[in-house]
Amino acid sequence: MRPKNFLKHAATLALKIGISVALLALVLSRVPLHEAWAAAAGLVPQTAALSVVGYFAAHVINAAKLRVLLPGLSLWQAWRFTMIGVLFGLALPGQLAGDAVKALRLARAAPDVGEVTAAVAAVAVDKIIGMFALLLLTAVGLTLNAATFGHAVVIAAAAVTVLIPAALVTVLAAPLPKWLGTWGQEFAAWRTVALTRDALLRSLAFGLVFQMVSIASVYLLGDSLGIGLPFTAWAVIVGLTSVILMLPVTVAGLGLREGSLVAVLAMLGEGTGQALALSFALLAMNLLGAGVGLIVDLAGRDKASG
Questions:
Q1: Where on the phi/psi map is residue 302: left (φ > 0), alpha (ψ -120 to 50), or beta?
Q2: What is the DSSP string of 94-162?
Q3: Domain regions of the chain by residue span
Q4: In whole angstroms, what is the distance from residue 8 CA to residue 30 CA?
C-alpha cells in the first residue's frame, strides 16, 4: 500500500473510531452503566444459550440462501464464506464491508472470469434479497402494531411495502447502464441464467426464514432481560437497527447499535438500562460469530468448488 493511501485509510479509521467513542459516550451519559449491568444480571443462561443457537442457525439458513444463487458451493463452503463475512462485517466499518470481503473471497476462489462475475453478482443479489425480506417483515410489524407506532408510521409502512417489490424488480430485472461495460454484460448474462423465478422464490423463502430466526434470537434476549414486547414489534426494532448499522461511520457498529436500541425501545416505553444491556449482549454474540468466522477462515482454504 502506498504511503498516501495508508495515511488516508489510517485517518478514516481514526475518524470512525472517534465517532464510535463519541456516540457511545453520549449514550452512556444518558444511561447509567450500573442500570445496564443490573439488567444483564437477570439474563437467564438457558435463554441466552438458546438465542446463540438461533443466531448460528440463522447463518446456516443464510448460507443455504447463498447456495441458491451459487449452487456450485457446498453448504459448508457457503457457511464458511458467510461467517467470514460476519468476521469482516464486525472488524471493518459497516456491515456492507463484510459482504464486500465475502464477494472478493468468493471471486478469488473462482477458477475463471465467468465464475468471478457470478460470485460477485450472487453476493450482491443475495444481500438485496435479504434486505427485501427484512424490510417486508418490518413493514408487516409496523402494520400489526399501529397502536404502538402510530398511524402515520403505518401509512409509511404501507407505502414501503408497495415500493419494496418495485425496487427489487428494478434491481434484478431492469436493463443495466452501458457505463458498466463488460462487467455489466457479464452480470446481465449471469442474471438471465441464475435468476429464474424458482431461484428467486427459493432465495426469498430462505431470506424470510433467516430474518425470522434472527428476530427470534433477539426476541429471546430481550424477553430474558424483561423487555415485554411482541414478536412483531421486534421485527420493527431489528429492521430499523439493521438499516442503521449498514452506515459505514463507526467500527463494529459501536455507538450506532447502542444509540438506536436505546432510542427505539425508550419510544416504546422500555427501560434504557435494559436496552443498553441488550445492545451489549448483541455485541457479544456478534463477537462470538466473528470469532467463529476467524477460526473457519484460518482453518480452511478459499475454494469455490469441491
A1: beta
A2: SHHHHHHHHHHHHHHH-SSHHHHHHHHHHHHHHHHHHHHHHHHHHHHHHHHTHHHH-HHHHHHHHHHHH
A3: 3-299
A4: 34
**The predicted structure's pLDDT at residue 305:** 47
| Ranges of H-type helices in 145-271 | 146-149, 151-173, 181-194, 197-224, 231-245, 256-267
Which whole number is the average pLDDT over 122-147? 85
Whether residue 91 contacts residue 130, with contact meaning beta carbons closer than 8 Å, is answered with no
Say if pTM beats, i.e. exceeds, 0.70: yes
In whole angstroms, give the CA distance from residue 291 to residue 194.
Answer: 33
- Give, in order, the Cα–Cα distances in Å from 204 to each of 134, 143, 154: 10, 21, 23
The sign of the torsion formed by the CA atoms of 105, 106, 108, 113 equals negative
Q: How many CB atoms lie within 10 A of CB 150?
A: 12
Burial 198-215 (b: 16+ CB within 10 A, else e): ebbebbbebbbbbbbbbb
| Residue range 189-214: mean pLDDT, rounded | 86
Distance CA 182, CA 160 (A): 33
